[in-house]
Amino acid sequence: MKRLAILSTLAAAAALTVVPFATAVVHAQQRGAAATPAAPAAGPAPRMADGKPDLSGVWWTGGDVGGRGFGGGRGRGGGGGPAPATFTGLYTASAAEAAKKLNDNDDPTLKCIPTAFGTLNVSMFDVGAVAQIVATPKFVVMLTETYHGFRLVPTDGRPHREEVPPSYRGDAVGRWDGDVFVVEIKNFNDDTWIWAEGRSSPHSDQLRIVERYRRIDSNTLEIEATVSDPKVLTAPWVVPKQTLVLAPFDQVMPLICAGL
Known about the structure:
The chain has 260 residues and is mainly beta. The chain contains 3 helices and 9 strands. The chain has helices at 9-12, 23-31, 93-100; strands at 57-60, 131-135, 139-144, 149-154, 171-177, 180-186, 208-217, 220-228, 237-246. Strands 4-3-2-1-9-8-7-6-5 form a 9-stranded antiparallel sheet, with no helix packed on it. The radius of gyration is 18 Å and the shape is globular. The relative contact order is 0.23.
């Protein structure tokens, strides 16, 4: 089904800085500007053969970046009151001073290097706004549209692999806590940022992310996350709860990056 193109937040910044996402325009033309159909009435959360909630689906905040329905008033941790803390707001003095020396040209995503977390505070989005989950009793597969990335999360509570080297997106393991899928990610290298789009957000190799996925009903997925980094943060960053909705299509599309 055609839809408004995923124009990642990095691509949206192209008007202000040189960004390697010209192909986003091509995808916009491929998908067309067809109106997004109304979501069906929500029913109970579907379940897999083993009785666990099925997290499968293509998820977004209600629309593509810049398109109708984007954000939908959801997934931003709003609700009035003081602004929630951010990752960079918890920097130690030395980390904050180091971040001041960085600018847009230092952004690793300019070289097609993914973020460690995600610009919209959803790790499986990376710098996009659409992601897909394919769930089985043994693995939960998270597909990221930007860079055509992926994350394989075993569901049996196994320990992290000791033999794999540090990586951009870390090593993830998962377990079920009732109907909540808990994912722990660590073993990152320090070559990425938490965010992108010029928001200086370096981290260390001690970065650790714990996420909790809960499918509220057939149309709604809630994600909570806590980000810790004892080398650069004064305290863990509790990410505002993100509420995603089921997209009206069943496959993500590749958004190819051509680095500078």
